[in-house]
Amino acid sequence: MQPSRPARRSSAAILAGMVLALAACDRAGDTAPPSGDTAAAESPASPAPAESSPESAAENVSPAAGETLVPQAEKGEPGARKVLLDFTRALRFEDFDRAYAILGDAARQSMTYDEFRAMFDGMDGITVSTPMGRMEGAAGSLYYEVPTTITARNGTRLTGTTVLQRVNDVPGATAEQLRWHIESFQVEPAPESAASTS
């Protein structure tokens, strides 16, 4: 038995009413303000402010490891900081063999490997702070002096200076002399650090 025409119209009207109601709900959901966890998921989170430290500030302006510098930059402060960054990373990873190998001849002549290694006895979780230094020229050479602080996880600190040097394009200079190298690395226990370990 076929349903009557009025019944078919009534069913169609109910179905159309339901579709309109669902569409209205969807539009209301689009305009309703999000609440709870939904708000956190949908609104972009503001990035947390980056911590600032002398070390991170120095790395932000230092060439990345392995980065190739143009010749003019290689001769200046970027070239010096590239060598310094290689050295400080070796210390932070406690790769003392590599760190000692990065030292120039004069720095290695001032202390043996065993003396260099002994400076870090009892230190782990090392961080190294090398803020921007000072460039000077003297007797055909360039020097870059940087204040240096090395801190261990237990609070032990070494402070001093690292000096890098290169010959400043003097005729007859060797390729080795024209490259930046660590001429001097002199750090010693900070007074409060020495007191805490005694």
Mean pLDDT: 75
**Which of globular, elongated, flat, extended, rod-shaped describes the shape?**
elongated
Q: In percent, how helical is the residue content? A: 40-55%
Structural class: alpha+beta
The share of residues in extended strands comes to: 15-25%
The helix tally amounts to: 9
Radius of gyration: 33 Å
Order of helices and strands: HHHHHHHHEEEEEH
Question: Can you characterise this structure?
Answer:
The protein is an alpha+beta fold. The chain is built from nine helices and five strands, in the order ααααααααβββββα. The protein has helices at 5-31, 37-42, 54-61, 71-75, 77-92, 96-102, 105-110, 113-118, 191-197; strands at residues 127-129, 134-138, 141-151, 157-167, 181-189. Strands 1, 2, 3, 4 and 5 form a five-stranded antiparallel β-sheet that branches. A hairpin with a 5-residue loop joins β3 and β4 (157-167). The longest helix is centred in the N-terminal third of the chain and has 27 residues, at 5-31. The radius of gyration is 33 Å and the shape is elongated. Mean pLDDT is 75; it is low at 6-10, 12-16 and 19-62.
